[in-house]
Amino acid sequence: MGRVTVVIQYTGINDKNILAKPLVNYFPNPAQNEITFDINIEGNFSLEVYNTIGEIVIKLNNLNNQFKLNLNEINQAVYSFRLSSKTHNYTGKFIKE
């Protein structure tokens, strides 16, 4: 089981406080029952999880910046996801074993 860390480097002068800080951590990947998301931005987020043909299989709203996603209702496969807030969007992939 692995841990995925995404690092976004900003080049704006006003963004100097968040340089090289992971924006989103999610783990474990691959996962069996659940994935933990840790988002380094304050706010409420929505999450959409898509199967390989682009259908939404999970949709959650009003999530805080740390939450666990239950994977028991989806099949083993590769999934993509989109996290959205008023100011940020992030996409990623995970494997359900």
Structure description:
The protein has 97 residues and is mainly β. 0% of the residues lie in helices and 53% in strands. It contains no helices and 8 strands. A 4-stranded antiparallel sheet has the order 1-2-3-6, with no helix packed on it. Strands 5-4-7-8 form a 4-stranded antiparallel sheet, with no helix packed on it. Strand 7 and strand 8 form a beta hairpin. The protein starts with a strand and ends with a strand. The mean pLDDT is 86.
| Assembly classification | single chain
The helix count comes to 0
Compute the CA-based radius of gyration: 14 Å
Share of helix, binned: under 10%
**Strand segment tally:** 8
Strand residues, percent: over 45%
Poorly predicted regions are none
> What is the succession of H and E elements?
EEEEEEEE
**Amino-to-carboxy terminus distance:** 10 Å
Gross morphology: globular
Query: Can you list the strand order of the major beta sheet?
Result: 1-2-3-6
Classification by helices and strands: mainly beta
Mean pLDDT: 86
The major beta sheet can be summarized as: 4 strands, antiparallel
Keywords, separated by commas or semicolons:
globular; mainly beta; 53% strand; four-stranded antiparallel beta sheet
Can you summarize this structure?
The protein has no helices and 8 strands.
Topology summary:
Layout: E1 4-7, E2 22-27, E3 34-39, E4 45-50, E5 56-63, E6 66-70, E7 77-84, E8 89-96
Antiparallel strand pairs: 1-2, 2-3, 3-6, 4-5, 4-7, 7-8
